[in-house]
From TrEMBL:
This is AAA+ ATPase domain-containing protein. It comes from Planktothrix serta PCC 8927. Residues 13-28 have a biased composition (Basic and acidic residues). Pfam families: AAA_5. Residues 1-28, 321-345 are annotated as: Disordered. Residues 329-345 have a biased composition (Acidic residues). Residues 54-236 form the AAA+ ATPase domain. InterPro entries: AAA+_ATPase, ATPase_dyneun-rel_AAA, CbbQ/NirQ/NorQ/GpvN, P-loop_NTPase.
């Protein structure tokens, strides 16, 4: 049954009942969806709800593959499911060449020039072209991007969820170029001088992710709330795998797979420290998926008990890592990370 979800101050719960079933399809994009286990990261749900209340962007950091990018869509899914109304969601995937304007709007100056030339030569389209050219907002020549679309939606009392993904990929000045939009919730269309202001009560819910490849400026950080998603503990990894693939593996087989994975990760952590490339959750999921291609659990167990790690290409992404970590034997896994057998999530 749908509930009345206050768009001005919605509350994210992270409850499993409001997340998709494993492999469910997005009705619009046909993308496969999986449940997001927000409760696995202590403090994450509180950080999300505080960002919503304060109308501040939430900056998420953590190792690649830890789930930063998926959170925004999980929030949109929960709000949509609880209210039985589609909550708008937009993602801006940052590229190294991006400028701040790329997430605001795109102005088609070429089309406007074409119209200006065509108006004198095409009598059938003359009135339509003149209307486009004389429109003070230049509506026909502007395509709103993630932030611009969210600001426009707020004017219609829609609160959009916006993901700005991997902001550290861009130039070091890029975050500072967004300060006006993040602080004052407004943007200026340079070509027309028009100001687009988000309605305060319906300002977009903005989540920003970073892999900490570049230091973000103090001015930018002051405008954000912050949460670091830690690498999950062993019992939490079990929950992630079960949520993704179901419970058709025996406990002993799941333990054996995690022993191999965590033994490799522990050794990589000792060798590389906090900043070196280590195997991630997304790589664990790929590896488990590859193992599941085998028809029986007995065959999977046989593979996992071999000295050479099966489907090593899912886990180790360099020749050096392959040579160094691909033959960590199951017997060496007794010391694998297992920090929280009794902890509640």
């Amino acid at each position: 049954m749908a509930e009345t979800l206050d768009p001005i101050n919605p509350k994210f719960t992270g409850e499993r009942e409001f997340q998709p079933d494993p492999g469910e399809r997005d009705p619009e994009t046909q993308e496969r969806l999986y449940p997001y286990l927000a409760k696995i990261s202590p403090g994450l749900i509180d950080a999300v709800n505080l960002a919503i209340k304060l109308k501040r962007p939430l900056l998420l950091e953590g190792e690649p593959g830890c789930g930063k990018t998926k959170l925004a869509k999980a929030i949109a899914y929960e709000f949509s499911k609880r209210s039985q109304t589609k909550w708008p969601y937009k993602a801006w995937y940052i590229k190294s060449t991006d400028q701040a304007k790329n997430g605001l709007y795109c102005y088609d100056a070429v089309r406007r020039l074409y119209d200006a030339q065509l108006v004198a030569t095409d009598p059938q389209e003359k009135d339509k072209i003149k209307a486009r050219l004389n429109d003070p907002s230049h509506t026909a020549y502007i395509k709103w991007e993630a932030i611009g679309e969210a600001f426009k939606a707020s004017q219609n009392k829609q609160r959009m969820i916006v993901l700005i993904d991997e902001i550290d990929k861009a130039d070091t000045d890029f975050p500072n170029d967004l300060l006006l939009e993040l602080e004052e919730k407004k943007l200026v269309v340079r070509e027309t001088g028009e100001e687009i202001c988000a309605k305060e009560d319906y300002a977009p819910i903005i989540l920003i992710t970073s892999n900490a490849q570049k230091k973000l400026s103090d001015a930018f950080l002051r405008r954000c709330l912050y949460h670091y998603i830690e690498f999950p503990k062993r019992s939490e990894l079990e929950k992630i795998i079960i949520a993704r693939f179901g419970e058709d593996w025996s406990d002993s087989l799941l333990n054996l797979a995690l022993n191999r994975f965590l033994a490799i990760r522990k050794q990589m952590t000792e060798d590389k420290g906090d900043f070196g490339k280590k195997i991630s959750i997304s790589e664990l999921i790929d590896w488990i998926a590859a193992l599941r291609f085998k028809s029986t659990q007995a065959k999977i167990e046989e593979l996992l008990n071999q000295r050479k790690i099966p489907y090593v290409s899912c886990l180790l992404k360099s020749k050096e890592d392959d040579q160094k970590y691909s033959e960590i034997a199951p017997d060496d896994s007794d010391d694998a990370i297992d920090e929280d057998d009794d902890d509640d999530v």
